[in-house]
Amino acid sequence: MASEDASSEIDSDALALAENLRITLGRFVRGVKAQANTPTTSQSETLSLLDRAGPLSVAELAGRRNVRHQSMRLVAGQLEAEGLISKMPNPADGRSQLLFITEKGNEELSRAREARTLQIASLIEERLSGTDRQTLEAAIAVIERLC
């Protein structure tokens, strides 16, 4: 297996740190989304992707989200029915259409992002000392170097 071969070449301290980071960040993100009442959904992930990437076809969205085309079509249909995305002709291929985020979709995405930011700020204010905040700021800079 390729992943087993790659993991045998990485030192055990780095692997342990990577696993702890993955688990902790995942738990943190899920917790913030739940506490801010903005749970992870295929719809919010799709809106976020369209916001970052711009108009995409259903096939491109499915590929980027690593889901089946049929599943992506269902999500897109729900988002379109709610007025959060819309379709436009694909200038590169007149037979297909691109999906794009609408103003209402942008507003919903902004609301959810703001709610999560406020939830994180509240947690920082409640639980972290000044020293902890400086440590967090340094940790963010280190994580940025991993991006």
Automatic annotation (TrEMBL):
HTH marR-type domain residues: 7-147
GO MF annotation: an example: DNA binding
Keywords: DNA-binding, Transcription, Transcription regulation
InterPro entries the record matches: HTH-type_Bedaq_tolerance, HTH_MarR-typ, Tscrpt_reg_MarR-type_CS, WH-like_DNA-bd_sf, WH_DNA-bd_sf
Stated name of the protein: DNA-binding MarR family transcriptional regulator
